[in-house]
User: What shape does this take?
Amino acid sequence: MSATITPPAVSIPPGDEMHAVHHQPGWIRRYIFSTDHKVIGIQFLFTTLLMMMVGGALALGVRWQLAWPWARMPILGDMLFRTDGGQITPEAYTMLFTMHATVMIFLVVIPILAGAFGNFLIPLQIGAEDMAFPTLNMLSYWFMWPAIGCFMLSFAYDGGPAAGWTIYPVLAVLPQAAPGSGFAQTLWLFGLTFVGFSSMFGSINYMTTIINMRAPGMTLFRMPMTIWGMFITAILQAFALPVLTAAGFMMLADRMLGTTFFIPGGLVVNNAPATVGGGQPLMWQHLFWFYSHPAVYIMLLPAMGMVSDMLACMSRKPLFGYKPMIFSMATIAGLGFIVWGHHMFTSGMNPVVGMTFMVSTILIALPSAIKTFNWIGTMWGGKLQFNTVLLNCAAFVSMFITGGLSGIFMAAVPVDVYIHDTYFIVAHFHYILFGSTLFGIFAAIHFWFPKMFGRMMSDRLGQIHFFITFAAFNCTFFPMHLLGIGGMPRRYADPYHFPYLEHLLPLNQFMTYAAIVMGFAQFILLFNFGWSIFFGKKCGRNPWNSNGLEWQAPSPPPHGNFDVQPVVYHGPYEYSSPVSGENDFLPQTEYMPRRPDQSQGH
Assistant: This one.
């Protein structure tokens, strides 16, 4: 006779057994100024997808100029530059790459990961009804719109901001220093401030929610990697963002109040004394990169967590090395705080300091390698589900490896001195933040779309979008390594006036054709996304047979998320478990008798 196994008793707070009928707010309160984390997450998602197309159009403007210098650019040139024939001017080119980076970093990658997926998934994956501070959560979204307004309005003044997305002084401080550093740059700084407040509101909410609102039985080491990625990212935001915000206020004071935090003494602009200063331009670089290097991991760690969850599900295997993955993410975050100086090797520094930054930067390769081998180990020998989700996750891993290997080159001071201001840096940056992060985002959109809207996206269209984007991406950005080694400088509107670079024009034209193909391929994603909301195949609660807690809720989840308070009995990666019976998955809410060899987390 088989003994009946009774799940251990888990205390549930009174009143949490079932959700009461909630008052239904009006349409505007429910869908516009909503405090429901799911609606806010979807609002972030729609907004960032729109801004992704804006940022992509600006990138095509950059590529157009490099392929056909000073030629008329159709449509975008007529709209933005208001010159005869829509020709790109040198000032307009500087504005293009400034605003492309601004839009893609501050209005796309960070808010789509932390804002869209963080908002939607955190309460669902930890078994909570909502965020800890719903009103603050709503404000985190609506503070994005003043930022978008400031950034977009800056196009109308002085030809737009033209000091680069790093806005180094003194170019970005003195209006008379260069075109595009006038009121447009002030608007840019206000936009950055609003984005900072939005991110800070979110980080406070995420940390509080994850620490205090986990479901009964959801210990820290039973949380999925998505939650760990969001949690560590929120900590990064909370400690690094105030530094950039303070620096932004200091620069605004220099521009508007006559202070001299970043303006040196004896400065002469256009053959005339600019101001009586006494500040340090290099201080801005330290403050800016103290935030902006951790920002690389703010853009990467959530994607790492989500890809870990998706790979385990699509491989039908437990995640390889769950705790080492957590510790490696925490190590990456910790090291990210002490390596900002590698962005300043060419600014000059004491050799001992340079050596310290170099060694600490190289050390990041160790936890990064742990994560890479764990992803490969998860897929190795698994029952791989060859669909859009798996393809994009595999692309994330491969692009992360490529970008990480190029990063080791730049960690070495003597190598970085040569390649720092070349297209080698552009290639590395895009392999990490486009090739890695955006492929992870594409996978996440397909994976969690059924939970958001109760329908499936077209896998055929998803695979077409993937293969075109993957091929076009590598044709666009891999040759940049060759350009950089060949000495092609970045941020030059016409580098071909250097005789030794004239032979690079055909390669730039090839890359531009690839970039155009990649840009138009994103309309496949947008069509698939929009069409599937209304006409996609309807699905149940758990179309992927995943173990995550979010799949126990209806699709889409109602207000309050769950029918009853979920109780967690084990970790989220019990795929192909011998105690799961006929299924190859075991949801976290199903009790599993603990074997002697099982770890606490599983």
